[in-house]
Structures are given as C-alpha cells and as structure tokens.
Write a structure and sequence with these properties.
Layout: H1 4-16, H2 22-33, E1 47-55, E2 60-66, E3 69-71, E4 74-76, E5 90-91, E6 95-97, E7 105-111, E8 116-121, E9 123-126, E10 134-140, E11 144-151, E12 154-157, E13 160-165, E14 170-176, E15 186-187, E16 191-196, E17 203-208, H3 209-212, H4 225-234, H5 237-240
Antiparallel strand pairs: 1-2, 1-7, 3-4, 4-5, 5-6, 6-15, 7-14, 8-13, 8-16, 9-12, 10-11, 10-14, 16-17
Helix pairs in contact: 1-2, 1-4
C-alpha cells in the first residue's frame, strides 16, 4: 500500500487473517505517521581511520583524509599491499603501519561529541627487532601536540592524565615511520575516558579503540516504523496464543 491506513490493513490480514477495526486503523496510522527520533550515535561513530602529516611549525595535523579501502580487518589504500599510492599505510583494531613518507602517517582520529575532560591511556609498541622504530604523537585540533614518543623494538607508555576538550575537537593518534618504513608495524590502541560535569554526579563515558573499531558502515540495523509496528502485532496475545 501507499498510505498508512492501507498498510495497517495489510498487516492485520497477514498476521491475524482478519481486517483491522476502525480503532486499530486509527492507532496504527497515528504511529506510522508520527515523527521518529533520530538513531542514537554509537561510540564507534566517534572514530575515523586515515592518513596525513604532522606539521612541526604549528604543531598540528595537516592533510587528514580517510583511508579508502577496508579489507581483511584493516583500513588501507587498496586491495593490494603495498598499495601503489598509499604504500603500507594501514590501521587495524589495535595498531597498523605508517607509509614511507611524512604525508602517509597513519592517523586514528577521535572526535569529542561534547565538551569535557578526557584521560588517555595507551601503550605504543614496536615489536620488530629490525627497523628504526616509529614515532607516535597525540595531537589536538584546538591546542596542537599533546605528547610525542618513540618506540623502537619495545614499548612506551603514552598516558595523558587530563585534557580539556571542546565539542567537535579532534584528537589524532599520529604514527610516522621516522626515516625508514621497513618493519614498522606497531600497536597503539588508546582508551579515552571522558568526564562531563552535570547536575548531580559527573557523567563518565569511555571509548576503546580495539572494541570500537569497525569497517564501513553497513545498512542501518534500526527497524522502520512499519517494521516496528509489524513486530508489535506479532507479540500480541491474539497472535501468540492463536489456536
């Protein structure tokens, strides 16, 4: 059907094998015609996976762009590795690999959904015995570099205890190859804990890079109003206990 009343009647014939009564049509039509609240954003929506560079002069990230291809559990340049354009640049749930020049640094970006104070807990690790290690930076879009560390055949703690953020501010976890991209696989899964002052007790939310990681957004899992109404009718006593 093309209108709400016809759709309600169709559901009743399919589910109850009878026409809907006038009051039932009115109830169903009112529901299908009512405004639907927008889908709630998830923690995963606050992460992006891309590449770019770190500019030493303003001490900020420049040229950020999302990595265009997702395959085998990683964001990368294309179906082949190394990619002709992006090289070995990739990001996985807990780490990744930078490209061969400063413009191909691997960047895991978090965007603050609202203002608050965050704490960052993370360990940057470079497990390979070969190579010259990697450099990790945490960079705010509002205040610039917050910290810089080098991991070479080992690991280093990269904690930041208190960072004030504004709504929409981005925090970039930037990894570059230093002088050579060989053997530069790394792990660096940050956990971000945000405290927001409010009425009564403070609100606390937490983002974990590993568990929040995802590929391209697929079809929405939210049911349409018509689908929701059909599910409600399937849960009624008239249907559940039909003889």
């Amino acid at each position: 059907g093309t209108d709400a009343a016809t759709r309600v009647q169709t559901l009743y014939r399919f589910i109850f094998a009878r026409p809907a009564e006038a009051e039932e049509v009115a109830t169903g039509t009112a529901y299908l015609s009512s405004p639907q609240p927008p889908a709630e954003p998830t923690l995963a929506d606050d992460w992006q996976y891309g590449f770019g560079a770190y500019d030493e002069t303003p001490r900020t990230t420049i040229g950020f762009a999302p990595l265009p291809h997702f395959q085998e559990g990683m964001w990368r340049g294309g179906p082949q590795l190394p990619d002709p354009t992006f090289g070995w640049t990739m990001l996985t749930a807990d780490g990744g690999h930078p490209g061969g020049n400063a413009k191909l640094s691997a960047i895991r970006r978090w965007t603050a959904p609202h203002a608050g104070v965050i704490r960052i807990a993370a360990t940057l690790a470079h497990p390979a015995e070969q190579g010259d290690g990697v450099r990790g930076r945490v960079v705010s879009s509002r205040t610039g570099e917050l910290g810089s560390w080098i991991a070479h055949h080992g690991q280093v703690e990269t904690k930041l205890e208190r960072v004030e953020v504004a709504k929409g501010e981005t925090i970039d976890f930037v990894v570059d190859c230093r002088t050579n991209e060989s053997f530069d696989s790394f792990s660096w899964p940050p956990t971000i804990t945000m405290t927001t002052a409010g009425e009564g007790a403070d609100a606390i939310r937490q983002w974990t890079a590993t568990s929040d990681f995802r590929g391209p957004a697929g079809a929405s899992a939210t049911l349409t109003p018509l689908e929701q109404y059909a599910q409600a009718l399937l849960l009624t006593n008239e249907f559940v206990f039909v003889d």
